């Protein structure tokens, strides 16, 4: 969220609790809820599902050990009734690090091809450099707009 908001990424730490920001992007007002992913915080996630049009799932591409756990949590999340139909943007973060898992590897480990209930797309990104973040957010806005808004 920091890089997208134009803030310094010199000191990035895991989100403890949640952060809420509203930003303008390509004519849309985006209400971004950055919710921590630690196990102790996951039980609170459902408090933020109401009126959710999109879900951004950030994966640490450098932590291959946790990808299986990440897959389980994503499957649980996508089965939540209040998230049915929400666009899913998967950000394979930390692609700037040596040895990072590829987008193809992450897509396979998360079993993204099996997802039928949501439009989804995965992007290789780096929160530090900003690589592909704008492209990813553009896709997300366009996907949500194509579902939510109809031409009259």
UniProtKB/TrEMBL annotation:
Q: Which SMART domains match?
A: ARF (SM00177)
**Which molecular function GO terms apply here?**
GTP binding; GTPase activity; metal ion binding
InterPro entries with a match to the protein in the record: ARL2/3 (IPR044612), P-loop_NTPase (IPR027417), Small_GTPase_ARF/SAR (IPR006689)
Q: Which residues are involved in binding Mg(2+)?
A: 15
Going by the entry's taxonomy, the superkingdom of the source organism is recorded as: Eukaryota
Keyword set, alphabetical order = GTP-binding, Lipoprotein, Magnesium, Metal-binding, Myristate, Nucleotide-binding
Q: Name one Pfam family in it.
A: Arf
**Similarity field:** Belongs to the small GTPase superfamily. Arf family.
This protein is called: ADP-ribosylation factor-like protein 6
Originating species:
Diploscapter pachys
